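Re: the 408-residue chain
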Amino acid sequence: MALRWHPVASDGRDSPDIYGDPKNVQMEEPMAEQREKVLVIVQLSGGNDYLNCIVPWEDPMYQDVRSGIRITEEDVIPLDNGLGLNPGMGAFKELYDQDRVAIIHGIGYPTPSRSHFRSMDIWHTATPDRVGDEGWLGQAVRQLDPTGSNVVTAVNFGNGLPRALAAPGVPVASVGNLDDYGLLTGMAGAEQREKALTAFSRIYTPGIGSGMVMDYLGKTGLDALKGADILKQAPKMYESTVEYPDNPIAKALKGVAQVHFADLGTRVFYTTSGGWDTHTNEISLQRGLWEEVSTGLRAFFEDLEEHDLGPEITVLVFSEFGRRVKDNGNGTDHGSGGVSFVIGDSVKGGHYSEYPSLDVGRLVEGDLQYNFDFRGLYTDLLEDWLDLDAREIVGGNFEKISPFAMAV
């Protein structure tokens, strides 16, 4: 199979595709049901090992540096041009073969941090040079819904609120389990629950004060009530023959599908897969994690197709950093340059940017050298997918890779 590699032009536009990818021609069919474009985030928390994910299995240097945890020729899923996929990514390969997957090589940022917390915060706020005040997606949601009129414009499937979605005045619904999601759900009627929330706030006012803080807490609580009432309807409206795997990320993606099919106006979904900090037992752990993510994504796209939807959905898969080039015998430690994926029916599948060199002279303190700033990818997603102004969110102008078909 010919390598689908997309070099980046100096002005950020994708260079002509010499292989004549049919997805480069302008799409003639209108987007299904004319739905607004939606962005789904899949965060891989802990640091996905780039080398054992997109595997340079024919490179002798890879075989040398990964003597303890190498993906063997028997186990690797061949991709193209000497690269292969982790053996847990079989379902992912199906999506790639359908031209739905853009692989962004060597993604990172200047002066990389090997701290989980700091590096994830950098990805969440798009501010490598300082501690950011607002999440990049929170700012995006503010542009999408300036008045905050739709409390489910952004929905997070998971506990808490990702920093990426945090911004003053931006409501976000966080859902642990969509089937029993709600706030004060034992009370019938919004009025009764609002009275209970008001009483609750009065109890704590002497301790934490009133004014702006309480106003914010009150609005947040009422937004949560509204979001609960809206989202709890989605499972009741959902019908599908697709069977999702029984794992947390697949359940979250099923929740994304349920809310999206209910047409509630959600534009940004956030999901998280944990456990990627593979200091030990990496071969087994990473394979199992990729099986969960890959099969979950496959079911998600099958569900979209069954409902005649899909072109309006783009998925970003990212992790806070890669791992060190040299293994520790049973796993890998925190590194820098990594890999991200953009997936969807409107994506030009293939490779973007360059695979970093494994030559010891080109490593950064034993890590892969990043060669593409993640803020450029954010710019692609914000400008070319969500039709937003990216410069203020990412803090400037950055080289883009243009992973989308010409007309999306």
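Residues 9-32, 183-188, 203-210, 212-218 have pLDDT under 50 and may be disordered.
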